[in-house]
Amino acid sequence: MAIYTLPELPYDYAALQPVIDAKIIELHHDKHHAGYVKGANDTLEQLAEARDKEQWGSINGLEKNLAFHLSGHILHSIYWQNMTGDGGGEPLDKDGVGELADAIAESFGSFAKFKAQLSKAAATTQGSGWGVLAYEPISGKLIVEQVYDHQGNVGQGSTPILVFDAWEHAFYLQYKNQKVDFIEAMWQVVNWQDVAKRYAAAKERGNALLLNP
Ligand code: MN
């Protein structure tokens, strides 16, 4: 009984070319993302078994696997929607994403400063990781996070709204070791309408942590 399922891609494998090759998208979605979905489901089953048998010898590993695979599933599910072949540029008022543009300017000083920070955070990941733009509910502002693997180095409660996958599987077939070039190219396929929708939804939920009520 699977709890999580692999979402369909919102476009063809080739839709993001030339920024991302069809082969990368195919493998990344059908193999890597599918692996995280399976991993999350398998881990939940193993935890259920541990509860039933009251056998807790593997609890540390299981909790780590749950965080890894579930976070991988969540980030990839956002990643596909964050991109479009018609994307790129800056979020602008005339495109109906003015609230997001204002929030970026208020939180980072300017779009250029935000872009520099997210680019740097993604491109300088050590090993496997992500650059993430997230809504932080206590301050009501946006922050950039440099995520280790899928789950480390994040502030609890923040909601990812724009995610750059910086794992080698996201670019190596095409960009080889040039991670900086890949991250720079990523800006050409950002779907600002999708990011703006996620910003509005995160803000709407408000201070769900019930801190500083
Ligand atoms: Mn990935």
UniProtKB/TrEMBL annotation:
Coiled coil: none annotated. SUPFAM superfamilies: Fe,Mn superoxide dismutase (SOD), C-terminal domain, Fe,Mn superoxide dismutase (SOD), N-terminal domain. Belongs to the iron/manganese superoxide dismutase family. Keywords: Metal-binding, Oxidoreductase. Residues 98-198 form the Manganese/iron superoxide dismutase C-terminal domain. InterPro entries: Fe/Mn_Superoxide_Dismutase, Mn/Fe_SOD, Mn/Fe_SOD_BS, Mn/Fe_SOD_C, Mn/Fe_SOD_N, Mn/Fe_SOD_N_sf, SOD_C_sf. One of its GO terms (molecular function) is superoxide dismutase activity. Mn(2+) binds at H28, H76, D165, H169. It catalyses: 2 superoxide + 2 H(+) = H2O2 + O2. Destroys radicals which are normally produced within the cells and which are toxic to biological systems. Its EC number is 1.15.1.1. Residues 4-84 form the Manganese/iron superoxide dismutase N-terminal domain. It comes from the Bacteria. This is Superoxide dismutase.
